[in-house]
Amino acid sequence: MNKNVNVSVNNRSFPANFLWGGATAANQLEGGFDAGGKGLSTADVMTAGTHTVSRRITPVLEAGANYPSHEAVDFYHRYEEDIALFAEMGFKVFRMSIAWSRIFPNGDDAMPSEEGLQFYDRVFAELAKHGIEPLVTISHYEAPYHLAEAYNGWADRRTIDFYVRYCEVIFNRYKHSVKYWLTFNEINILTMPFGTFMAGAMKPEGNAELTASVQTDNEQLRYQALHHQFIASARAVKLGHEIHKDFQIGCMIAYMCSYPLTCNPEDVLLAQQKDNLSNFLCSDVQVRGAYPGFALRYFQEKQIELQMEEGDGQILKEGCVDFYTFSYYSSTCVSAAPDQESIGGNMSLGLKNPYLQASAWEWQIDPQGLRWSLNNIYNRYGLPMMVVENGLGAVDTVEADGSIKDNYRIDYLREHVRAMGEALADGVDLIGYTSWGCIDLVSAGTGEMKKRYGFIYVDKDNEGKGTLDRSRKDSFFWYQRVIASNGAELE
Question: What pTM was computed for the model?
Answer without folding.
Answer: 0.94
